[in-house]
Design goal:
Elements: H1 2-16, E1 19-21, E2 27-29, H2 34-51, H3 58-78, E3 87-91, E4 98-101, E5 105-109, H4 112-115, H5 119-134, H6 137-158, H7 165-202, H8 209-221, H9 236-245, H10 247-259
Parallel strand pairs: 3-5
Antiparallel strand pairs: 1-2, 4-5
Helix pairs in contact: 1-6, 3-5, 5-7, 5-8, 6-7, 7-10, 8-9
């Protein structure tokens, strides 16, 4: 019975597996379709708008839209799975955050307008968030979690009578969290950093400001972030180093945008 259960789970997993490739060439597990993610993104955005106060200041919205528009134009030119139009909302929230959701939804918290001190720095933030959508990181993470749950079910089926079953399941869960899920999340964050770096440069925003942004973020955090090996995000120093190592191609894109007259200057509110 145990063997039959494990074999069945293996067959289900093998039937579900679909492979994709990220924009940076990394193999991805995809068990969720783009249309499903778009639907979930739209639903989540509606819920956020219902629960979170919206900042209706037209000057702030104009500033954010001035940055978002060239970024999404470049993104949709290069990635056909993205929507042609994006809904943008500024939320009254003092946290230094912004996000993009599948289905063409972008939210910007008023708090990030303090940390991102230039239009190019805010372009780095929003470009990073669009990078997550471009690389379909949400679908990938959901797929990974589904695979993890199947693995735990399989272990439970193999060892139902083991007196140390609960301890084994707990250790495996911790091992997966620290050894797979957290580094996996850091990989996604690093990918989004580089996709966003390229995106902002092609859109006509100075890519070197991405480094200045992370200096601001580190200063705002005041050294309170957890150790990198226990975090879903890379340490600020790692992000700055990674961006610096990939700055030359971004500067080439920025110079090409300058030559084409595709520079954007968005006055801060």
């Amino acid at each position: 019975m145990r063997i039959r259960t494990v074999v069945l789970l293996g067959c289900v997993l093998s039937l579900m597996i679909a492979c994709a490739t990220s924009p940076l060439g990394r193999k991805q597990l995809m068990l969720v379709s783009g249309s499903q993610m778009d639907s979930m993104g739209a639903q989540a955005f509606q819920q956020l708008k219902a629960k979170t106060p919206i900042d209706s200041d037209p000057i702030k919205m104009q500033y954010v839209q001035c940055i978002v528009k060239p970024l999404t134009e470049v993104a949709t030119q290069h990635y056909t799975h993205l929507p042609s139009s994006w809904e943008v909302v500024v939320f009254q929230d003092e946290s230094s955050n912004a996000f993009a959701l599948p289905g063409g939804k972008i939210g910007v918290h008023t708090g990030i307008l303090k940390t991102a001190q230039t239009d190019a720095q805010l372009a780095a933030v929003i470009g990073h968030e669009i990078g997550h959508v471009i690389a379909q990181h949400g679908a990938e993470r959901m797929s990974q979690q589904a695979g993890t749950q199947l693995g735990l079910i399989a272990l439970g089926a193999i060892t139902p009578d083991n007196p140390k079953k609960n301890m084994l399941m707990g250790l495996l869960g911790v091992g997966i969290q620290v050894g797979v899920i957290l580094p996996f999340s850091r990989t996604q964050e690093s990918e989004a950093d580089l996709i966003g770096l390229d995106l902002m440069a092609q859109a006509g925003f100075d890519p070197t400001q991405s480094v200045e942004l992370w200096k601001n973020m580190m200063a705002a955090a005041g050294g309170k972030s957890p150790p990198e090996w226990l975090s879903t995000h890379p340490a600020g120093e790692s992000r700055i180093r990674n961006l610096g190592e990939h700055m030359l191609p971004a500067l080439n894109h920025y110079q090409a945008a300058q030559s084409a007259g595709q520079l954007h200057r968005c006055p801060r509110p």
